[in-house]
Design brief:
With 181 residues, the chain is α/β, with parallel strands linked by helices. It is built from six helices and five strands; from the N terminus they run E-E-H-E-H-H-E-E-H-H-H. A five-stranded mixed β-sheet has the order 3-2-1-4-5, sandwiched between helices.
């Protein structure tokens, strides 16, 4: 029995990190890496995955990422999933197990392991939904459009409005750094 694990939100300037773990109770068809699916396809698959699996989703807020760092937060999430989901193998998409025993990292597992594909979808849909809700609180940033990533529009919004409470203060993109000239 495999528990697939993947994350969404490792690199954005704002919003949470979301890590999901999935073990299938029954087979799900038409899975793919969440990045290869449309929003509608992800939403439909999300509902099928939730009903056809044992899963656990960990949400780490931006202030926790600022306090402890991304690696510690990922490790904490992996430990929580391993403690909550029973499986023979825990496959994590990536090249590091972040020091967590029992976790097996596989590069591009979200393209080859169905359980990791499912975890990718749960993490991405959960994070996208959160960012669209946060867009209602902070409409001047356009979070529902760019999901907190460092797009040109997002950088401009930060320049115009400053950082808001969900921005990762420890993330400092070059576009926001003062210049020497």
């Amino acid at each position: 029995m495999i528990c697939g694990i993947d994350e969404a939100g490792r690199g954005p300037l704002a919003g949470p990190l979301v890590v999901a773990g999935v073990v299938f109770k029954k087979r799900i068809y038409k899975l793919d890496d969440s990045k290869n699916l449309t929003t509608d396809e992800r939403e439909k698959l999300y509902e099928r995955i939730v009903t056809a699996s044992h899963y656990h989703i960990v949400i780490i807020e931006s202030d926790q990422i600022d306090t402890y760092g991304l690696s510690v937060c990922i490790a904490k999430s992996l430990k929580e999933i391993v403690s909550r989901i029973e499986a023979d193998r825990y496959i994590f998409d990536g090249n590091s197990r972040f020091g967590v025993r029992h976790v097996e990292p596989i590069i591009k597992a979200d393209q080859s392991v169905k359980e990791v594909m499912a975890a990718s979808i749960l993490a991405k849909v959960t994070r996208d939904r959160i960012m669209c809700e946060l867009d209602k609180l902070y409409p001047q940033y356009g979070f529902c459009r760019h999901k907190g990533y460092g797009t040109k529009d997002h950088i401009e919004a930060i320049k115009n409005h400053g950082l808001c409470p969900i921005h990762r203060k420890s993330f400092r993109p070059k576009a926001l750094q003062p210049t020497l000239f």
